[in-house]
Amino acid sequence: MTSCALLEDWRLWQYAARRSPRTINERVRIIACFAAETGLASAAFAEPADIIRWLGKHAEWSASTAATYHGSLRAWFKWLTLMDHRLDDPMRKLGTPKPPDRTPRPVSDSGLVRLLVAPRLHHRTRVMILLAALAGLRVAEIARVRGEDIDLSRPAIHVTGKGRRKAWIPLHPLLVDAAATMPERGWWFPGNCRRPGRHLHSKSVSDIIGAAMRRAKVAGSAHSLRHWFGTTLLDDGADLRTVQELLRHKSVATTQIYTKVSDVRRHTAVEKLNPFRSRTF
User: Fold this and answer.
1) Which residues form the catalytic set?
2) Is residue 232 pLDDT above 60, yes or no?
């Protein structure tokens, strides 16, 4: 079978296994990218050396991106061996990448301001940034926003996130204003002429926001805006349980990854320590 045919079979198999559409599309995109960049006749029959060379030439990838690409390759070749399309799994001969840094890395307050007031910032890009920073949306969720998801009477936005979990997120006043400028029906961020009737890829949203951040000389990534959302909620007095609900995490442990405790709060906590508190005078 050709690579294209195998990829389509893999796509269907993943749907049957109840993987999320976002995960499936991203995995298929990565394997297609691997096939195109390596020039192999079929991505199904890559040797370990082919994979090592491809991963090795992308030194610009972050630890998180490298882990994502490695995971997609691992899932692909595991499926190929499971379905008897090949006898060996070349990923067994590769080392496992270093786990990504899980400490929160929110964009700075000054960086967010600089980003929002940057000259020549496209309106659509600004709305994407606001959705990430003021509603905590992931790039895949931003890509799928439709006019029908907005309820200005509440005001709130309906989001379908990871694991198809659905939630209503309150709309910040700036997003209420932005919603008035966007389509009342259909995709807010439609794809190009090659994707008629479809929304942008999540990677496109990430690239658009990332490019805007580089132009404004703001450190971080699109996901750093979501980290800012969680961190600032906590810093402004919201309890961890509320932040968990707004970030739509199953576990508070995951929320803690997204919420950096400010130096001010840490210093204040230490200064309040009283080694003589048990002493009575």
Assistant:
1) 138, 162, 223, 226, 249, 258
2) yes
